[in-house]
Amino acid sequence: MHLDEMLEFNKLFVENKEYEAYKTDKYPNKRMVVFTCMESRLVELLHRALNIQNGDVKMVKNAGAIIRKPFDSIMKSILVAIYSLKAEEVIVIGHHDCGMSQVDIDALTENMTNRGIDQETIDTLKHSGIDFHDEFHGFETVEESVSQSVDIIRNHPLLPKDIKVHGLVIDPGTGKVDIVTRDK
């Protein structure tokens, strides 16, 4: 089992005091929040492509680097990083070939039932006001999605006016980063 392998590695990591190479405090060295996708290809690539070291940034992730609601958990995390952890800048980073692009809601729902979720449960949720399209739809282009997330952050009523918010897109194959929108 993969968890057992991870736990065994962790035991040795702690015993050998390998954590000492990563010591830092809770405040990001670069005074920055990076909001990005949970994409597994970016776990190390993003950090290396942008020279982000342990302790440099607050890293916030979800599927697709998508913010749709101004008071969702991502936005709350960004605000906490700004007000409690000294972050002064926010960067939204989407990526090409994202699994959230053009999500097929019908196929997703079918996969749920194939994995044991009763159709009755899905129907009950839908009748209770949970709109699966609103909750799970992705985006047409990553640039459009990044711009939407940046706009929600920039226009948030609780965001201080001096906080800069930028939007980037990274290529998960090469690490090349392109600017979608840059705050002045």
Q: Strand arrangement, largest sheet?
A: 2-1-3-4-5
How many strand elements? 5
- The helix tally amounts to 7
Compressed to H and E, one letter per element, the order equals: HEHEHEHHHHEE
Q: Residue ranges: pLDDT <50 for 5 or more in a row?
A: none
Strand content range:
15-25%
Largest sheet: 5 strands, mixed
Overview of this protein structure:
This protein has 184 residues and is α/β, with parallel strands linked by helices. It has helices spanning 2-15, 42-49, 73-85, 105-114, 119-127, 132-136, 142-154; strands at 32-37, 57-62, 89-95, 164-170, 177-181. Strands 2-1-3-4-5 form a 5-stranded mixed sheet, with helices on both faces. The termini are far apart.
What labels would you give this structure?
184 residues; alpha/beta; five-stranded mixed beta sheet; 7 helices; globular
Write a compact overview of the structure shown.
The protein is α/β, with parallel strands linked by helices and about 180 residues long. The chain is built from 7 helices and 5 strands, in the order αβαβαβααααββ.
Q: What is the topological layout?
A:
Layout (H helix, E strand, L loop, with lengths): L1 H14 L16 E6 L4 H8 L7 E6 L10 H13 L3 E7 L9 H10 L4 H9 L4 H5 L5 H13 L9 E7 L6 E5 L3
Parallel strand pairs: 1-2, 1-3, 3-4
Antiparallel strand pairs: 4-5
